[in-house]
């Protein structure tokens, strides 16, 4: 009997504590001061916050406050969203990596204007995406809020140069740089827009590194990166995504800013903006191999994704360059059971890095796939297709950005 009384006493105390906890929880949401409420809501995933903002007027007012944006800026990182590029180039479909789902965003009004309707995304960093309007004009946009800024036109002299690479580097979502690399190997130059000053800097001529003795290729800039066994570009039905024709990434290593991009022959060119020089990396695969290639940035490091064919099978591998021995090292590879179906189909890959993930769009005349590779676990996940009006939508490429409502253009 005493045992039962003790159990009943403990159960009663437990129910009382639970009731108190529930009351405190209810009280905490109703009685939180504005500062604490903003801090709590700032930790919500961005997509969840937009739903929460419709809960009540108070929460809606939080979303418009400058102090809330400041609280959001203190969140170290957010799961990346991938802005998808389709052949129409006028929609905002994103893949939310946090809940593995497709979402639609309102297309920014500035990009809907007739003069900007042909704009294509060409670079992204932090919470921002850069669109190219042609004639060396650019718009920087926060896809989440729809806010945009049209950058000042590039100097007329730059328009006469062949644009090779567009790279973007956002700093704490409050300022950013846009880097353009132009010219023809071995004569390259770059120009940098700094949002802090609101203007373009002077054109910088890049010298060739004195320790580089290799010859440069001069193939057609419009080449799709498939090479024949003789080393010549093979004509294919698959055209590289126009958004990725300036495929490039920027890293900061030991205080030096370096832009990497693909040359017309498929080799990697490194442009050191700090020392104002450039060099070509050794060819990753022999010229007698057919392959498709793209360059990505993951956690401040340049990596290369290559889809190649060997021994009647296709292989998709990711490579890192070892500066100490001037050699490429494979770090992960897609399981052969997944990559074999790409054999003989002239598949074009367009890739983007985000933290430890690489998002890969695979396209050919026969099929399209979207795959995410986790570099830590070597896990390869094929994503579900995006359907519109009952039909699967084909995307050519993607750009990675963090969904940051506080990111300023």
TrEMBL record:
Designated name of the protein: F-box only protein 13
Domain of life: Eukaryota
Domain F-box: 26-71
Organism of this sequence: Populus euphratica
Family matches, as InterPro entries: F-box-like_dom_sf (IPR036047), F-box_dom (IPR001810), Gal_Oxase/kelch_b-propeller (IPR011043), Kelch-typ_b-propeller (IPR015915), KIB1-4_b-propeller (IPR005174), SCF_F-box_component (IPR050796)
Gene3D superfamilies: 1.20.1280.50, Kelch-type beta propeller
Pfam families referenced in this protein's UniProt entry, alphabetically: Beta-prop_KIB1-4, F-box
SUPFAM superfamilies according to UniProt: F-box domain (SSF81383), Galactose oxidase, central domain (SSF50965)
């Amino acid at each position: 009997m005493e045992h039962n009384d003790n159990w009943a006493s403990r159960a009663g105390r437990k129910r009382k504590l639970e009731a108190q906890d529930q009351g405190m929880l209810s009280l905490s949401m109703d009685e939180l001061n504005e500062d604490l409420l903003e801090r709590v809501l700032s930790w919500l995933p961005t997509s969840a916050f937009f739903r929460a903002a419709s809960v009540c007027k108070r929460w809606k007012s939080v979303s418009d406050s400058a102090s809330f944006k400041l609280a959001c800026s203190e969140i170290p990182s957010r799961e990346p969203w991938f802005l998808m590029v389709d052949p129409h180039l006028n929609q905002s479909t994103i893949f939310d990596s946090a809940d593995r789902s497709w979402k639609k965003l309102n297309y920014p009004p500035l990009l809907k204007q007739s003069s900007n309707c042909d704009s294509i995304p060409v670079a992204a960093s932090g919470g921002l995406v850069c669109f190219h309007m042609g004639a060396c004009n650019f718009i920087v946009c926060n896809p989440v809020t729809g806010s945009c800024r049209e950058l000042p036109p590039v100097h007329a002299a730059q328009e006469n140069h062949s644009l090779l690479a567009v790279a973007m580097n956002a700093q704490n979502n409050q300022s950013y740089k846009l880097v353009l690399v132009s010219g023809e190997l071995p004569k390259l130059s770059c120009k940098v827009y700094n949002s802090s000053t609101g203007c373009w800097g002077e054109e910088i001529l890049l010298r060739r590194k004195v320790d580089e003795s290799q010859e440069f290729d001069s193939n057609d800039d419009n080449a799709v990166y498939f090479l024949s066994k003789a080393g010549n570009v093979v004509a294919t039905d698959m055209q590289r995504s126009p958004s990725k024709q300036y495929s490039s990434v920027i890293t900061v290593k030991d205080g030096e800013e370096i832009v990497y991009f693909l040359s017309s022959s498929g080799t990697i060119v490194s442009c050191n903006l700090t020392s104002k020089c450039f060099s070509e990396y050794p060819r990753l695969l022999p010229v007698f191999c057919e392959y498709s290639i793209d360059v990505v940035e993951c956690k401040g490091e340049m990596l290369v994704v290559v889809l190649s064919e060997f021994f009647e099978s296709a292989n998709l591998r990711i490579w890192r360059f070892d500066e100490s021995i001037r050699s490429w090292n494979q770090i992960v590879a897609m399981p052969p059971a997944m990559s074999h179906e790409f054999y003989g189909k002239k598949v074009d890959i367009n890739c983007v890095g985000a933290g430890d993930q690489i998002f890969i769009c695979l396209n050919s005349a026969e099929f399209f796939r979207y795959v995410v590779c986790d570099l830590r676990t070597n896990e390869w996940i094929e994503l579900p297709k995006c359907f519109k009006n009952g039909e699967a939508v084909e995307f050519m490429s993607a750009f990675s950005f963090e969904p940051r409502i506080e990111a300023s253009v």
